[in-house]
Amino acid sequence: MVTMNLPPLLANVDAEHLDIPLQTITSYCFFPIKWLRYVGWAIFHTEGSVSRQPQGAPLSDEAPLEDNDVLYFVVSGFEPSSTVDIEVCATCTHFRTNMQDHRVASFRTQITSRDGHCIFTSLRGEARHIIPFARGSTWLQIVSRARGVALNDINDIRNGFLCQADLHRLLDMSEIAVLVTPNQILRSEDVPQSNLPFDDFNTRPSPAETTYQLQQLKVSDPVDSRFLLMLAANNKVASFLDCSEDTLPHPVLLEYMYGLAIITTFGSKRIWQNSVWKRPPRPSKQTTGAEHDSLLSPDTPRKSESSSSAFMNLPSTPCEDEQPDDLPDYVYQVMQIQLAQQEEREQKEKSVDIKRWLEHCSAPSEMEEL
Fold it and tell me: What's phi and psi for 286, nearest 5 deg?
């Protein structure tokens, strides 16, 4: 087991740590230290180094790891978010999600047109939101803005992909996650790739510039493990009918969800469970069963019909992405405060610039001195 200690997300809160089996890490990336640096980036959206001491020398990406290693993700000059008053929340555009809006149907139609069927298997799929539909557009705006992109509508085609029902469920449970390369840390060549099992699905094109891979984090049910072995091996590469880069699932959103999945699966979980924070605004109306079903492809069977549970003759597990859980709410609040920090810094810089400009304007010119 490899332990990596993380900087605290908030001041006066215990630091989080991750406990990850070494064999698991090496299955995700040829360079374990480099993958751990990416995990830090995905969680904090800040580039850092991995060290054996809290402020020690950074390890090289090629450095070997051993079981029972204790490491630290070190970020130079990292400031816990609560150094800014929690009430100083960054401004954002509020977009109220209308469940009856034609954009819900349009989302399904566009996703189906781009993907055809589940992007990781040859099976029919559901139109899955990356940032969950129940979170609403305000949530999407905060996440994307905190990570430097502009996305406004929860039903934006870049916030979704077609996904087989069981993969959908396992993604919601953070037992699997989607890794996108190249990114700020990893190259596509750094990650093993699998096209197993091979079938006609593998003849579809994959994006030329971006690689989407399904990674198995911690699949707890043996039935799901067998299902994945048959249909989507670890590091399975996605393919699409339309590989236009400007319409593909947005890497920033998948990176954000990857970081959450790693903390959920391998984290000590004590931070967000023991902290008090303001919950973000919720959409004014939640999906009903009929409305949620409207997001499925027209010919897609419901979960009870097309899941591995049915395949293995077992009862189906309900989808969980419509129920808020503590970690995303906690990280949402952290991002709000980090945006406030950023705005406060920018305002101070503007004030300094204005002050300098005024001083320059009031200074006597050379002609006046003559």
Answer: -90, 160
- Whether 240 contacts 206, CB under 8 Å: yes
| Listed residue (119, 321, 279) closest to 213, CA to CA | 119
CB atoms within 10 A of CB 192: 15
> For the chain, which residues make up each domain, given as ranges?
2-83, 102-265+273-332
246-283 pLDDT per residue, tens:
899 999 999 999 988 898 889 876 555 555 444 445 44
Nearest-5° angle of CA 357, CA 361, CA 362?
Answer: 120
Total residues found in the chain within this entry: 370
Q: Decide if pLDDT at 101 tops 80.
A: no
For residue 74, which of 5, 2, 16 has the smallest C-alpha distance? 5
Q: CATH number for the 2-83 domain, one of 2.60.40, 3.30.70, 1.10.287, 3.10.20? A: 3.10.20
Q: Is 29 helix (H, G, I), strand (E, B) or coil?
A: coil
pLDDT category, 129, cuts 50, 70, 90? very high
User: pTM value?
Assistant: 0.73
**Nearest in space to 47 (alpha carbons), one of 71, 75, 10, 8:** 75
The residue assigned the tokens 């993969």 is 167
